[in-house]
Amino acid sequence: MSAATDLATAPEPASRRPRLVGHAAFAAVLAMAGLPLYVHAPKVYADAYGVSLGALGTVLFVLRLLDVVQDPLLGRLAGAVRAQRGLAVTVGGAGLAAGMVGLFAVTPPVAPLWWFAGTMTLVFTSFSFLTIIFYARGVTAAGQLGATGHVRLARWRETGSLLGVATGAALPTVLAGAGLPAFPLFAVLFVMATLGALWLMRHDWPGGANLPDAGLRPILRDRVARRLLVAAFANAAPVAVTSTLFLFYVESRLAAPGWEGPLLLLFFLSAAAAAPVWGRVAERTGPKRTLMAAMVLSLASFAAVLALGAGDVAAFAVICVLTGVATGADLTLLPAIFAARMARVAPSATSGFALWSFVQKSTLAFAAIALLPSLSRAGFEPGAENAPEALRALSLMYAGLPCLLKLAALAVLATTPVEED
Fold first, then answer.
1. 12-53 confidence digits (pLDDT tens)
2. Which is nearest to 248 in space by CA: 370, 372, 361?
3. What 8-state DSSP symbol labels residue 143?
4. For the chain, what is the domain count?
5. How far apart are CA 202 and CA 223, in angstroms?
6. 298 pLDDT more than 50
7. Minimal CA–CA distance to 65: which of 120, 139, 143?
8. In the chain, which end has fewer C-beta atoms inside a 10 angstrom radius, N or C?
9. pTM, whole model, 2 decimals?
């Protein structure tokens, strides 16, 4: 093992050891800033300001391309400011909170579409920067938690993240149901949550050695790291596919409009409940073996979706629970495996997690570019009466394609010697 790796994993004073509650809280805040952007923001600007969905979709697509392209640059920036991580995170947190307030709580002072684009850019950039620096810090923090440190840290972090997603998805609806100004209040609560997470993590950013960032070369040269990135793409792509098509599937294939929200919340709560359980199992049996078992469960669940049709809401709810449980392992164990590899080949990890973020986000671009035009060519029309052939195409894309992708991810992971780490 290199001297740099020794520094990355050398014990820190007890006062500098990672606070797992802080990592969970910070992950929850980042997750709260993710899903609402895609679920809530377009509807808010369409309903309140009359911006067309086509224009909003175009802006989101352009911003997603920008977001993917800028991740390697943000990784370099995170490496450059490693000696001032606390200040950098505070600035990033302020940008994230300001963007959310501008997006949801401020009446646009300029054309709403331009305001939407500007505030979303601020949120996207802050979110990406904070995610990279947070996960990179986790590589060195996990070294202070013993032999299973990467899994233990991931268990706390990803459970917090999943709870944050569920909160972000449900809170505006709950606030609106209580007769309150949902989105302005959501933005205020998000600012408070951000301040709380920054406070809980205030002692953790200075921890660990300030290792130089070696860039992408040692990561791309490493065969195991390359294979893990391929597995990450193939394993995240099914979630991108189902996220893109979920509303269409529930509304048209299940003929169950109005059930989208409860089913989505059921999925995320199941993932959040399962994540710590998978983590504990992985600490005893190993992360690779545990993750492969979860992937088999996910594969079987996706296959079962192919048999569903109109009215099968109860059966689909069970599948949402099972796929949520499997996703809890995906989101906890695969980042932990990759983080353990980064501790070996690129201990600063900023470029490594910039590349990881790039791979994860590219799955959403893949889903949007490949699926929606294909679904349209198959004759599917949202909200309309669709022919059986169009509904069959929707089912095959929603569940059949994820089966193939999950099989590919399972094959890559099975042949990757991660136990060496």
1. 444 456 677 888 888 889 888 876 676 677 777 877 788 776
2. 372
3. T
4. 1
5. 36
6. yes
7. 120
8. N
9. 0.72
